[in-house]
Specification:
The protein is an all-beta fold. It has no helices and 11 strands. A hairpin with a 6-residue loop joins strand 6 and strand 7.
């Protein structure tokens, strides 16, 4: 069983609908998304190359890496196309008042 460890990463108004931003959660850099009003969080580093996903392109529930255009589903971390072969880690997210929190103990 995994222990929950909620960490505040930003304020709610830092998330833009259909966009991506980055934040530091303890010692991890995470990418934060807001899609159809629902917040999501993933690791910010692409598993294929040394590129920040927060510099990438968001379309629906997909983030495209800016380096080689590999794509991931931000809900599951699943690989959507080559050259990416390894999924990214996703984290549970919740909004408490104006704070956006990421559960670092609940990563998948």
């Amino acid at each position: 069983m995994t222990t929950q460890r909620w960490v505040t990463v930003c304020k709610r108004d830092a998330l833009e609908e259909g966009g991506v931003t980055s934040a530091i959660a303890d010692d991890r850099e995470v990418a934060l998304y807001l899609i159809e009003g629902v917040p999501y969080a993933t690791d910010n580093l692409c598993t294929h190359g040394d590129a920040r996903l927060s510099d990438g392109f968001v379309l629906d529930h997909c983030i495209e890496c800016p380096l080689h255009q590999g794509q991931f589903d931000i809900r599951t971390g699943e690989v959507l196309c080559e050259p990416v072969t390894e999924p990214i880690r996703v984290y549970p997210v919740r909004v408490v008042g104006e704070a956006v929190e990421v559960d670092l103990g609940g990563s998948k």
